[in-house]
Backbone:
């Protein structure tokens, strides 16, 4: 999986790049963030995508992802998830699945996520590494995981972006 269909999306917080394997969304990154255009194969090994773009009609996953992003940035609370294909180690996949369970407008700590993974004794740093390698930002809400003191730490697109995303969600959840 070295080539993927790519599309750009202009969000209020910066340009996003979306990637699809033709059937599902496999990546969504803020341009320039850490691990940009990096995803994982079925074996869990890192794959850097080639920016070749679409050779055929854009996959339907893009329309669904863009509808989700339009709703999210438009002040709504998306009530659906576009088709996703999250490949990675079993540990990372567990972390990413649990991220999808964090409600809009809420946060948990890295330590709480470790407990939900059944690994309460694992360091928050190891869990943070898995969260930080999330290839589908926003939709798989890694920005909702905060430090033990509640501060927004450890976001691949920067803590300023994380702070703005959390503020957006809290403001919209109160409406």
Residues:
């Amino acid at each position: 999986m070295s080539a993927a269909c790519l599309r750009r999306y202009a969000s209020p917080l910066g340009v996003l790049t979306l990637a699809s394997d033709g059937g599902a969304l496999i990546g969504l990154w803020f341009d320039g963030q850490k691990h940009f255009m990096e995803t994982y194969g079925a074996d869990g090994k890192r794959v850097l995508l080639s920016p070749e773009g679409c050779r055929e009609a854009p996959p339907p996953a893009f329309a669904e992802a863009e509808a989700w992003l339009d709703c999210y940035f438009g002040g709504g609370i998306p009530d659906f998830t576009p088709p996703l294909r999250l490949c990675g180690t079993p540990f990372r996949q567990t972390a990413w699945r649990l991220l999808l369970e964090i409600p809009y407008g809420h946060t948990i700590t890295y330590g709480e996520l470790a407990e939900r993974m059944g690994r309460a004794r694992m360091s928050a740093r190891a869990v943070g590494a898995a969260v930080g390698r999330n290839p589908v930002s926003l939709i798989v809400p890694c920005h909702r995981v905060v430090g033990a003191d509640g501060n927004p730490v450890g976001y691949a697109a920067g803590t300023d972006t994380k702070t703005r995303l959390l503020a957006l969600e809290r403001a919209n959840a109160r409406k």
Notes: The first strand starts at residue 5 and ends at 11. Residues 159-174 form the longest helix (16 residues). Residues 5-73 form one domain.
